[in-house]
């Protein structure tokens, strides 16, 4: 009688043999691939009225997603900038700008915000921790230590209004 020693699992494609291999993702099962409808060409006209209505609904939904919601004027606004970047905290969330790049974090995706002012330096550091366990930070240079302290006080007040303290005192 023969017994196998070790794991009884099928072989898995590795990155060395399959350039499309991504660890943690499994390829679709053959029966799932057969259930997927074939792609429709972009210039194909809808054949029925139901397809036409569905296409119009998809276009309307896509247009609504592309439009940015207007900023809400509730809550305090904190904004600081230097020659290259800026940090804005308002009722929509946290926005970092550096040169031509922009990163926006809405309040639903922000898990925490950390601020820092080094002892001898004159810059404000703001770090955003998202609910997806990622962190992003921005630095803004202050012209003076006095202004840096003022920024830190204003930033704490703005963050306190957006993050409610859930502890009972």
Task: Provide key terms for this protein.
169 residues, alpha+beta, four-stranded antiparallel sheet, three-stranded antiparallel sheet, 7 strands
Task: Provide a descriptive summary of the structure in words.
The protein has a domain at 78-162: PH-domain like (Roll). 25% of the residues lie in helices and 26% in strands. The strands form two sheets. A four-stranded antiparallel sheet has the order 1-2-3-4, covered by helices on one side. A three-stranded antiparallel sheet has the order 5-6-7, covered by helices on one side. Strand 3 and strand 4 form a beta hairpin. It has helices at residues 30-35, 49-66, 145-162; strands at 78-81, 85-90, 93-98, 101-106, 110-116, 123-130, 135-141. The chain is an alpha+beta fold. The model is unreliable at 64-72 (pLDDT under 50). The radius of gyration is 26 Å and the shape is extended. The chain contains three helices and seven strands, in the order ααβββββββα.
Outline:
By secondary structure, this protein is α+β, with helices and mostly antiparallel strands.
SSE arrangement:
Elements: H1 30-35, H2 49-66, E1 78-81, E2 85-90, E3 93-98, E4 101-106, E5 110-116, E6 123-130, E7 135-141, H3 145-162
Antiparallel strand pairs: 1-2, 2-3, 3-4, 5-6, 6-7
